[in-house]
Amino acid sequence: MDCLDRPPLVGTDMETNKKEKLIEEILEQEKETNGQLVAECSERLEIEKTPQRPALKRRKPEEEDEEARWNVDLHTSAELRDESRKLGTKARQLSDRLLEMVVTMRINKERMTA
Fold it and tell me: Which stretches does the entry tag as region Disordered (predicted)?
């Protein structure tokens, strides 16, 4: 008897449906996470683009070096830029992972229907 002539195993459809539902749930979670990361990234980029005044602090003596103030602003800006890059990278990784899962799900679905 050829393996193509065999009837399908009992319960396979239920197992497949459970797996598909689980994959769909995971995809939804990944979409939500990816959307949140993209929103955070966009928000941080907007913060970085808009000129920000430093928080009001007690007045310091006039002798304070103006260059030191600029260095603090540049340091903060650099930290935000680095964080933004990290979040962008994470968002791309999640997007790639989501795409890979969708492709795998479609391939598995085609195999089951074939």
Answer: 49-71
Kindly report, residue by residue over 62-94, the tens digit of the pLDDT. Answer: 556 666 666 666 667 778 888 889 999 999 999
- DSSP annotation of 64 reads S
From residue 61, give the alpha-carbon distance in Å to each of 1, 9, 14, 68, 73: 94, 83, 75, 13, 19
User: Long-range contact list for 73-77, CB < 8 A, 24+ apart?
Assistant: 77/48
Q: Which two tokens stand for residue 104?
A: 């795998």
Q: Which residues 6+ apart lie within 8 Å of 37 measured at CB?
A: 87, 90, 91, 94
Amino acid 88 reads G
- Average pLDDT of the segment spanning 53-61: 57
Q: What pTM does this model have?
A: 0.35
Burial of 48 (0-12, 13-18, 19+ CB in 10 A): middle
Q: What tokens appear for 81 in the block?
A: 């830029």
